[in-house]
Amino acid sequence: MQIAIDAMGGDYAPREVVDGALHAAASLNGIERIILVGDQQAIQQECRAHGSIPPGIEIVHASQAIGMDEGPVNAVRHKKDSSINRAVDLVKHGRAQAMISAGNTGAVVVSATLKLRTLEGVERPAIATMMPTPDKPFVLIDAGANTDCSPKMLVQFAAMGHVYAREILGQPRPVIGLMSVGTEETKGNEITKETFRLLSASGLNFKGNIEGHDLFKGNIDVAVCDGFVGNVILKTSESVGHAVGTWLKREFVSNPLRVLGTLCLKGALSQMRRTMNPEMYGGAPLLGVRGVCIICHGASSSRAIFNAVRVARDSVNLQINDMIIKTVEGLP
User: 151 partner at 20 to 30 Å CA-CA among 12, 51, 76, 225?
Assistant: First the structure.
C-alpha cells in the first residue's frame, strides 16, 4: 500500500507533516511507501533533521502550494502543480491508494471531486468528522463539503456515515440521527421532513430527528446534516472547547487551594484532554470519492498526521469504498 501526503499543507508544514509521516512509516504495518508531495528541498531538509531519508519514504516534487486563504476552485484550476493536486493525481493514476492533507479543505474537496470523481451511485462526497462524547466518538456528516443538499444526498450521507462508523469506529449497528429543530417527525424544513421519510424507509438504524443538545450524550453514532449546519456545529464545538479550557485554567489557578485540588485532578483532566483531542481520530475522511482522502485540521501536529496515516491504511484495507457502493445501492 502506498499513501500520498501533502507535505506543504497545514500551519506547521512541512516540519510536523514530515515528522508524522516518518513515524508512521517506521511504526505502522502494511504500508509499503509514504509519498511526501511538495517542495523537494524543504522536505529533504526535514527528513535529514531526523537522520536520513528512510527506504519507505519517497519524495515527489511540487513547485506550488495552495494557501489557506485562497479560493478553492481558482487555486485548483490555476495551480496545477500544487502539492494538493499532485497528491490527488497520485491516487487518480494508481500510484497511491490514499492521500492526506492538512491544507486548504475546500481545495482538497474540489481537487478530489474533479479528479477522482464520485463512487458509483453517490451524488456528492461528504466530510465525515469524528466528534467526542464521554463514552465514544460519533460521526458528523457532512461537516462542510456541501452547503446545499437534497434529501437524497442526505440519505446517502447517512449511508456513508453508517459504513464508516461500523468499520472504523467498530459500532456493529450504528444509530443514525437527523439534525433538526425538534425531535418530532413534523419539525424542520421541507428538506429535513422529506429526508426523515426517506431515512425511515432506508433500512438503516434511523433513530429520528435529533437536536443540538442530543449530540454529545453518546446516544447516536452518526449525525446527518448538510455541510452548512455541520460546519457551524464543528466550529462552534471547537470554540466552546477552547473557551471551557480557558475558564477552567483561570479558575483552577485563582487561589492556592484550587491549585492543590487541580493537582489531585491531574489524571482525570489529562484523560478528558485525550478524549477531546481531535488529533486522536486521524482527520476527517472525504467519503464518496474514488480513493481514500483524509482531511486534517490546519493546526495538525505530527501525532495527527500519524493517526491520519493509520486511518487511511485501515480504510483501504477494510475496502470502505466498496461497502459504501453496496450500501448506497441498497437504498430505496
Answer: 76
Contact 222, 176 (CB under 8 A): yes
Query: Cα–Cα distances in Å, from 136 out to 132, 175, 217, 239?
Result: 6, 13, 10, 21
Helix (H) or strand (E) holding 261: helix 256-264
Q: Residue 223 has which C-alpha cell? A: 449525525
Model-level pTM? 0.91
Cβ(6)–Cβ(101) below 8 Å: yes
Q: Which of left, alpha, beta for 283 (phi over 0: left; psi -120 to 50: alpha)?
A: left
Residues in the chain: 332
Residue position matching grid coordinates 450521507: 157
pLDDT at 146: 96
pLDDT tens per residue, range 242-254: 777 777 777 677 7
The pLDDT confidence band at residue 259, using thresholds 50, 70 and 90, is: low
**Shortest CA distance to 318 belongs to which of 137, 172, 145, 167?**
167
Q: Residues with Cβ < 8 Å from 72, sequence gap 6 or more? A: 66, 104, 106, 107, 109, 110
Q: Are strands 176-179 and 206-210 parallel, antiparallel or unpaired?
A: parallel
Q: What is the mean pLDDT of residues 79-87?
A: 98
Task: Give the separation between CA 322 and CA 303, rounded to whole angstroms.
Answer: 29
Instruction: Write out the H or E segment, with its range, that includes residue 4.
Output: strand 2-6
Is 199 buried (19+), middle (13-18) or exposed (0-12) by CB count in 10 A? Answer: buried
